[in-house]
């Protein structure tokens, strides 16, 4: 008997035929930040004010277009819906900014620690160099010691005495 195709076999589970919706949290976060930034601009306030004035004017004065009479319940519903979406979007954008600030602060602390360590190292090196320079014999010190030895040893002339002796001859 011929083997049945895989998708018709009863002893194997079927592959799920679900529609998979991919969700990118980073893209959603970026979109929410853009919306939150736009909600805080004068441009948004201008257009929202213009929209509300138009809505109220049409509902008060255009008798044939009254879709939302005087208490403007539909307009209030629109405001409530907008506020219910705006608040979480603004909070999400604020949380993302806090995360970025936290990462930036950690990087600044690490950089400050590295700078402090470098400064401490350079200070130690500078102190070591100062001590080493203090122990180095200078030219004046060597001349003084050589002059003292010449005075103590008989028969050794200094270079100045030799030059004076040559000029006399």
Overview of the molecule:
The protein contains 5 helices and no strands. Helix 1 crosses helix 3. It has helices at about 25-40, 40-60, 75-135, 140-150, 160-169. It has about 170 residues and is an all-alpha fold. Keywords: Membrane, Transmembrane, Transmembrane helix.
Content of β-strand:
under 5%
**Proportion of helical residues:** over 70%
Secondary-structure content class? mainly alpha
Categorize the overall geometry.
elongated
The beta-strand count equals 0
Helix tally equals 5
Spans of at least 5 consecutive residues with low confidence: none
Give the secondary structure arrangement, pairings included.
Layout: H1 25-39, H2 42-61, H3 73-135, H4 139-152, H5 159-168
Brief overview, please?
This is DUF1003 domain-containing protein. The protein is mainly α and 169 residues long.
Task: Give keywords.
5 helices; elongated; 72% helix
